[in-house]
Write a structure and sequence with these properties.
Largest sheet: 6 strands, parallel
Number of domains: 2
Helix content: 25-40%
CATH superfamily of the largest domain: Dihydrodipicolinate Reductase, domain 2
CATH architecture of the largest domain: 2-Layer Sandwich
Strand content: 15-25%
Distance between the termini: 17 Å
CATH topology of the largest domain: Dihydrodipicolinate Reductase, domain 2
CATH class of the largest domain: Alpha Beta
Number of strands: 12
Number of helices: 10
Length: 339
Amino acid sequence: MAPNPISRRGFLQRAALGTAVLGTSSVLGSNAHGANDRLSIGIIGAGDRGSALMTQIVGLAKSHNAEITAVCDVWKVNLDKAPARVEKAFGRSPRTCGRFGELLAIDDVDAVVIATPDFAHAPILIAALQAGKDAYVEKPMATSVEDANRALELARANKRIVQAGTQYRSHGGYSAAARELAGGAIGQVHRIHASANFNHPRWARGFADCNESDVDWQAYLFNRSARPFDARLIRRWHLYREFTNGLSGLWLSHYVDAVHLLTGAKYPASAVALGGIYVWKDGREHTDTFRALLDYPEGFLFDWGMGLANSAGTEFLVFGTGGTLDIGKDYSNPSSLTI
């Protein structure tokens, strides 16, 4: 029997009630000794993502009594830019360092933001937890199951707060949609489909301005095999197998988390994937065209794909026996979630 229909307006009204804002209070742990103490935040990785997160922290600093007090980056170009931005926002310059261990050794840093290339996320997170820091870490939290489990064990043992930065988790519309799906708004969910398409060689950034004299190369490679300096591995790390697990880690991680949020699922029972470098033969090691199928024991199939040679855009659909949930074209901040 089909479920009772819900109007688009009714759904959006309910979704609006669940809207949440991601704030720095999400990483406020027991290191903060009282309501009047300022949350001291260290930034590890001050590149594109780190700079964007710094802007968000600045925007929330007053309401959340927070301050960026330390910044770390292995590339001098990034490290030299950060202090002026921080000083403008907080009236004093942060401490700076080229190696994350130096930042973690600062006693009065309560929490850290980890916005390094993917391969360093889990090792730095593990070190931060061992140092007694709370943490926000960019996705993917880890590129291996072993590292993910180690970080989880440490967070629990040390009673630390960790937030992984997937793009859907803190959007209230998804929480509201999950309640509607659990209530049978579209019947039995049996398939979820999502895809993202861009017609350009994503992450193929210029690297002419990245000079060996400005980089602590040993620190950058810290858990990778030694090799001569290569600016491409700093500016285009997204393209190489030693530095990320490709489109699945760079983008699928967002969508998988959203699927779990929407359905309550935890782990797929099985998965298959295919892909290839069909268009952008620019030295990249990861695919420019990728498709994955994930089968869940809760009784649904999730198919996801990404392509870098077509501008069809993004889509995200949940199929039920009584209707379809259309999350829309804006993958990170949908203007509507309609049934």
